[in-house]
Design a protein that fits this description.
CATH topology of the largest domain: Serine Threonine Protein Phosphatase 5, Tetratricopeptide repeat
Structural class: mainly alpha
Helix content: over 70%
Number of helices: 10
Number of strands: 0
CATH class of the largest domain: Mainly Alpha
Distance between the termini: 31 Å
Strand content: under 5%
CATH architecture of the largest domain: Alpha Horseshoe
Largest sheet: none
Order of helices and strands: HHHHHHHHHH
Length: 162
Amino acid sequence: MRKFTIALDKDINKQYNDAAIYYQKSIDEGEINLETFLNLSFLYWNFQDFGFFSYYKISEELRNIGYDKYPEILDIGLSKFPNNLELNFWKKYFQHIIYGDEFSEKDCENLLKEYGDSESIVPYFFLYLFDKEKYKQKRNELLALCKKKPTAKNLYIKSIVG
C-alpha cells in the first residue's frame, strides 16, 4: 500500500504527474486497491483535457500514456472488481463524454440496480444533472465525501454539481 499512499497524497496535493506515476507503480507492483484503479483511470482520462493538462503542466509523455491506458486501467480494475458500480459507471461515462456514446439517466439508473450503491454514490453526480430535486440528498452526501478527499476525480465531481 505504500505506493498507493504516496500516490494519493500527490493526487490530493495536485501533483498529478507524480500521482499518476505512483498509482501506476502501485498497480505494476501488484498492490490491489480499488481506489488506485479509479483514481488512475480518472487521471489518465482527464490528462486529455486541454485546460487540465495545460494548467497542471501534465507531461506530453503522460498525456500519451493516459490516452492509451485509461481504458486498460478500467478493464484491469474490472477484472479484479467486476461488480463494482463505480468502475462500471466511469467506463460508460468516459465513453459518453469522449465519443458521445449514449448514456442516459435510465442507463445510469440501471447500473445502480445492477450493482447497487452500497460501495459508491459517485453515479449520483450524473443523475443529479437530470433531476436536481430527486437526487439532491445523494448529491449533498457526495459533495461532503469529495471535500474530505480532494483528489482530481473528486474535484471534477465537485465542479460538475458543486
